[in-house]
Specification:
Blueprint: E1 9-16, E2 21-22, E3 25-26, E4 33-42, E5 48-58, E6 61-71, E7 74-80
Antiparallel strand pairs: 1-7, 2-3, 4-5, 5-6, 6-7
Length: about 80
């Protein structure tokens, strides 16, 4: 029997404002469109927090991600996996 892991928002990367590679591109080079959603995420330090959900059109595809500024000009990005 194959067991499937329940999907959740998983930390993908953390980096400084203006220089974060997500989906193979610098995510700050694209316009983020807010979905109005807020999701629970677990930060690297183990704390639970809430991140805003955005979409961005990258190479003809709409990509969905959650982002939170965890420190001054430091961002964490999450993907629903």
């Amino acid at each position: 029997m194959k067991l499937y892991k329940e999907r959740s928002w998983q930390l993908r990367t953390t980096g400084i404002d203006g220089n974060v590679i997500l989906f193979g591109v610098n995510i700050f080079d694209y316009e983020w469109k807010s979905t109005g959603e807020h999701v629970a995420v677990k930060r690297e330090c183990g704390w639970e927090d809430h991140a805003d959900v955005y979409t961005a059109d990258i190479d003809g595809k709409t990509r969905r991600f959650a982002a939170i500024e965890v420190s001054n000009c430091v961002w964490s990005f999450y993907l629903y996996q």
